[in-house]
Amino acid sequence: MEKEQLEALAAQLGNPSGEKGIEVAEMMNETNIGMTKNSISNLQLAAGDSILELGHGNAGHLDFLLSQSNDLHYTGLEISTLMHEEAKQLNRNAFESGKARFLLYDGEKMPLEADTVDKVFTVNTIYFWKDPKMVFSELSRILKPNGTLALTFAHRSFMEMLPFTAFGFTLYNPDEILEIISGTNFQLDRADEQTEVVKTKTGESVERFFSTLVLKNKL
Predict the structure, then answer these.
(1) What phi and psi values does residue 207 have, to the nearest 5 degrees?
(2) What is the bridge-based pairing of β-strands 73-78 and 143-154?
(3) What is the pTM of this model?
(4) What stretches of the chain show up as alpha helix (H) in DSSP?
(5) Do residues 146 and 216 touch, judged by C-beta distance below 8 A?
(6) Is the pLDDT of residue 163 over 90?
(7) Which among 129, 122, 118, 106 is positioned nearest to 176, based on CA atoms?
(8) Is 80 exceeded by the pLDDT of residue 19?
(9) Residues 6+ apart with CB under 8 A from 54
(10) 109: DSSP letter
(11) Residue 93: partners with Cβ closer than 8 Å, 6 or more residues away
């Protein structure tokens, strides 16, 4: 790909828009589904849980999430207006029945009340956080005491092999994220490290190293 194409792809991955955004969202759901299911599984969902997802894309995984237990309540936050609408359309039954709601936000301040969410997960979004400590502060505010955050991301060593990550991505290894977390109200409960073979956004098959850091909101 030319530089301009890589920049355009990177922009779409961070904030899908237009006709191309729908295509990119479908590709993201397909290539990230292993990471997403790992993140959801690490939440250890229980009946009645209130769940928040940051950056849900088209939320093609919502049926999987809602099948994990009874009476789950899902809220999805997105910066992308296109993904906000796509998720509602793709998950019309869950949306209309009240099992799921979808909200827009600015990437930092979250339109939810304090101490109202049991569990939070987010997959491949931390690369785009302008102020990670502010995001963690907002998540801590929203989560109930001892609530769980599953933070899933691909390791820097893998992401650096992808040419589009040179544009607008901030890459991390687990130890770098743990250093950021040390200055927040979260503490590490466990780290789940995984390897999978996936096709990249440019069509190559590669081995992806990723982690889900399971964090607890301090009492």
Answers:
(1) -90, 120
(2) unpaired
(3) 0.92
(4) 3-14, 18-42, 62-66, 81-90, 92-96, 132-142, 156-159, 174-181
(5) yes
(6) no
(7) 129
(8) no
(9) 77, 120, 121, 122, 125, 135, 139
(10) S
(11) none
- Unique residue bearing structure tokens 């899908």: 16
- pLDDT tens digit string along 83-92? 999 999 999 9
**Structure token digits, residue 208:** 């992806």
Q: What is the C-alpha to C-alpha distance for residues 157 and 94, in angstroms, rounded to an integer?
A: 38
Lowest mean pLDDT among 25-29, 42-46, 72-76, 133-137: 25-29
50-54 and 117-123 beta bridge pairing:
parallel
Burial of 122 (0-12, 13-18, 19+ CB in 10 A): buried
pLDDT digits (tens, 9 = 90+) for 30-60: 888 999 999 999 999 999 999 999 999 999 9
